[in-house]
């Protein structure tokens, strides 16, 4: 495997990466996390680092009190009041800029308005907004008054919004009149109203005016215009409410690739400490650094590295509404060029799309501001990694391949740019303070080179917080796979399969739930797909298990580059490549050419639904899809194959 040393230019310029030796830090657990806590401003200092009473959920920085909004905004006012905190680019070419002081004023106004509408400390506010500045502002307004935010991705249908509001007993809703998807207008308010109609009692609703005067939106009895509220309450002095470190900061639901959406809650102190620390060690964020993370704020990546991490660090956040391809494929590169983006954080899926479009797009723009590139969400193939490194980063920007989950709150495995070497395709070593083990079905540690279950064997501050009642036990399942959750052998089960090298570098094979057993051998779909995407014409692939008469075979869905190709030639090339690189036993029985793969809004392929296609099962729980229309098309293609 080729190793990439940190590019010299980056090493010379990097600002605050912590050089502390991984071993030393690791030995000092849990004290090593005090270093993370010290990145925050505490209203009351904590008196104990952790509490095991709720094991397996460890709780952090006990006795400490702090406020997230104060940490993200007020603490910066003395030194960088006029620095830009947020730059927004709208779908229609609009641009808006907010300084830290602007954020302070608008967050305080909305915080005062929420209070006036009856929202109290610990109440839950659901936010159902696309990528508008009002989204992070409302999150911080909630945090300021000690309310708990519950952001629901704006693309969800009303039913999904209802279940996510009811589950957490939401006291208010913040939404907008509508938004634009390329040329089409999305009526967000209509979706919100449909959801509200199925609630027993309608909570107060704040409506952001995104569409402007040309679209008149009717506000109901308990519905309020966002701008009117800002106008009424601007200048309000809303003191940040001191929150216990263990108090919830927000609820979030996981992407639901594997079934029902799962509620997660993150606690204020531990979550912020984990995110602040990784913003430094992984992204080298310091005041004034400009970061563009393409994730939607409705998912954990957006919470941690669009909103909290950058603002805790005093950085400048770039937020882009709309699609990367609209009005044309130059848009992402124009955003980088115009805003002087220094850190770009995106997913392998987006990078593959850029690859498909070709290097002429990035190369037509000035990318000299870029210093560091990041990727998250799924394994990145070495080819994709190298394309990103060469054509986006001009071979001078390190790439951090960051592994983490909604449950972990912050990045746990990644190289540290400027310190660790990169190995394309391998995420890297666990970060200082994080201990991992690859184990077999019985929880026994496997030696380097042997694939198994990725587990984490020491608690970390931004870990998922416990929930009450039955929900406690649902979450406790993360520990039950290998151990009694209340026993001492603490082992968090990630649901990922991985392999570790002699030097501690972890390669993610794929989710455990995407592992296929063919011919009594376990196959990581990610591994098969990496082979298939080396075939010239293929852009994306998904491998699923097809069961016919008790026999399991492999079926591959592949999307192709736009040019005309001879499909029989490609089909053979795919099956040959799998047979050659994985083994004859794994030769796919079927190859289906798909216009698109079914994906969640966070870009994860929905294997479960592809399995429904090949096994002629009805589609269930498809409301988390970005492109639900593709299912019918795939079923037709499958039946005519
Ligand atoms: C996968 C997103 C390979 C993994 C932050 C994990 C990755 C799931 C990587 C969590 C990576 C995340 N390489 N796979 N760098 N990062 N994953 O909760 O399977 O949306 O369990 O959190 O994404 O997805 P989630």
Q: What would the keywords be for this entry?
A:
alpha/beta; 20 helices; seven-stranded mixed sheet; GMP Synthetase, Chain A, domain 3; 641 residues; binds 5'-O-[(S)-ethoxy(hydroxy)phosphoryl]adenosine; 29 strands; single chain
Topology:
Layout: H1 8-13, H2 22-27, H3 34-37, E1 48-51, E2 59-62, E3 65-66, H4 68-80, E4 84-89, E5 95-99, H5 100-116, E6 124-127, H6 134-144, E7 148-151, H7 158-166, E8 170-176, E9 179-181, E10 184-186, H8 188-197, E11 205-208, E12 223-225, H9 226-233, E13 243-244, E14 248-253, E15 263-267, H10 268-281, E16 290-293, H11 300-312, E17 316-320, H12 331-339, E18 343-346, H13 348-357, H14 360-363, E19 372-376, H15 382-392, E20 399-402, E21 436-439, E22 452-456, H16 470-480, E23 492-500, E24 506-511, E25 515-518, E26 521-524, H17 525-532, E27 538-548, E28 551-560, H18 567-581, E29 590-593, H19 607-614, H20 630-639
Parallel strand pairs: 4-17, 6-7, 6-8, 7-14, 8-11, 11-12, 16-17, 16-18, 18-19, 19-20, 28-29
Antiparallel strand pairs: 1-2, 3-13, 4-5, 9-10, 14-15, 21-22, 22-23, 23-24, 25-26, 27-28
Helix pairs in contact: 4-5, 4-6, 4-11, 5-6, 5-9, 7-8, 10-11, 13-15, 19-20
Bound molecules: 5'-O-[(S)-ethoxy(hydroxy)phosphoryl]adenosine (WTA).
5'-O-[(S)-ethoxy(hydroxy)phosphoryl]adenosine (WTA) binds at residues 254-255, 299-301, 376-379, 401-406, 427, 494-496, 508, 511, 602.
Q: Can you describe this structure?
A:
With 641 residues, this protein is α/β, with parallel strands linked by helices. Helices cover 31% and strands 22% of the residues. It contains 20 helices and 29 strands. The strands form 8 sheets. It has a 7-stranded mixed beta sheet with strand order 5-4-17-16-18-19-20, with helices on both faces. It has a 7-stranded mixed beta sheet with strand order 12-11-8-6-7-14-15, sandwiched between helices. The chain has a 4-stranded antiparallel beta sheet with strand order 21-22-23-24. 5'-O-[(S)-ethoxy(hydroxy)phosphoryl]adenosine binds next to helix 11, strand 20, strand 23 and strand 24.
């Amino acid at each position: 495997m080729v190793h990439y040393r940190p590019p010299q230019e980056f090493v010379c310029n990097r600002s605050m990466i912590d050089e502390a030796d991984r071993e030393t830090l690791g030995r000092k657990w849990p004290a090593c996390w005090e270093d993370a806590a010290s990145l925050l401003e505490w209203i009351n200092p904590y008196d104990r680092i952790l509490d095991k009473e709720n094991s397996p959920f460890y709780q952090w920085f006990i006795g400490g009190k702090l406020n997230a909004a104060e940490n993200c905004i007020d603490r910066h006012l003395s030194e960088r009041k006029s620095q830009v905190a947020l730059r927004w680019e709208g779908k229609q070419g609009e641009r808006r800029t907010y300084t830290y002081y602007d954020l302070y004023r608008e967050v305080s106004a909305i915080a005062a308005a929420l209070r006036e509408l009856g929202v109290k400390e610990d109440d839950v506010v659901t936010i159902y907004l696309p990528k508008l500045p009002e989204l992070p502002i409302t999150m911080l307004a909630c945090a300021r008054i000690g309310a708990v935010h519950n952001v629901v991705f704006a693309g969800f249908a009303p039913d999904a919004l209802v279940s996510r509001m009811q589950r957490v007993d939401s006291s208010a809703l913040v939404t907008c009149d509508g938004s634009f998807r390329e040329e089409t207008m999305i009526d967000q308010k209509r979706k919100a109203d449909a959801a509200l109609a199925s609630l027993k009692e309608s909570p107060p609703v704040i409506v952001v005016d995104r569409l402007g005067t040309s679209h008149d939106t009717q506000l109901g009895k308990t519905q309020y215009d966002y701008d009117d509220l800002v106008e009424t309450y601007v200048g309000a002095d809303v003191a940040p409410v001191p929150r216990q470190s263990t108090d919830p900061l927000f609820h979030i639901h996981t992407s639901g690739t594997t079934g029902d959406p799962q509620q997660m809650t993150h606690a204020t102190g531990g979550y912020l400490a984990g995110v602040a620390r990784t913003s430094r060690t992984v992204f080298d964020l310091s005041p004034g650094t400009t970061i563009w993370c393409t994730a939607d704020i409705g998912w954990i990546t957006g919470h941690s590295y669009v909103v909290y991490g950058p603002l805790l660090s005093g950085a400048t956040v770039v937020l882009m509404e709309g699609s990367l391809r609209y009005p044309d494929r130059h848009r992402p590169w124009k955003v980088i060029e115009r805003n002087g983006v220094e850190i770009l954080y995106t997913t392998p899926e987006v990078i593959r799309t850029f690859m498909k479009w070709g290097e002429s797009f990035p190369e037509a723009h000035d990318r000299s501001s870029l210093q560091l590139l990041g990727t998250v969400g799924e394994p990145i193939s070495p080819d994709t990694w190298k394309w990103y490194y060469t054509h986006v980063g001009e071979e001078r920007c390190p790439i951090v391949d960051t592994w983490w989950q909604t449950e972990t709150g912050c990045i746990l495995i990644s190289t540290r740019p400027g310190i660790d070497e990169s190995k394309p395709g391998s995420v890297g070593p666990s970060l200082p303070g994080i201990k991992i083990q690859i184990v077999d079905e019985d929880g026994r540690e496997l030696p380097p080179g042997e694939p198994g279950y990725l587990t984490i064997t020491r608690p970390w501050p931004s870990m998922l917080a416990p929930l009450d009642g039955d929900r406690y036990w649902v979450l406790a399942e993360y520990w039950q796979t290998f151990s009694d959750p209340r026993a001492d052998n603490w082992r968090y089960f990630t649901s990922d399969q991985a392999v570790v090298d002699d030097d501690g570098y972890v390669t993610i094979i794929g989710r455990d739930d995407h592992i296929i057993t063919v011919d009594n051998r376990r196959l990581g779909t990610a591994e098969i797909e990496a082979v298939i995407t080396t075939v010239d014409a293929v852009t994306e692939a998904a491998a699923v298990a097809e069961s016919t008469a008790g026999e399991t075979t492999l079926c591959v869905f592949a999307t192709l580059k736009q040019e005309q190709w001879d499909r029989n030639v490609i089909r053979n090339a795919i099956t040959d490549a799998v047979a050659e690189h994985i083994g004859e036993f794994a030769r796919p029985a079927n190859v289906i050419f798909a216009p698109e793969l079914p994906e969640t809004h966070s870009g994860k392929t929905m294997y479960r639904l592809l399995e429904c296609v090949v096994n002629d099962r009805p589609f269930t729980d498809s409301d988390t899809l970005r492109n639900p229309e593709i299912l019918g098309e795939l079923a037709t293609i499958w039946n005519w194959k």
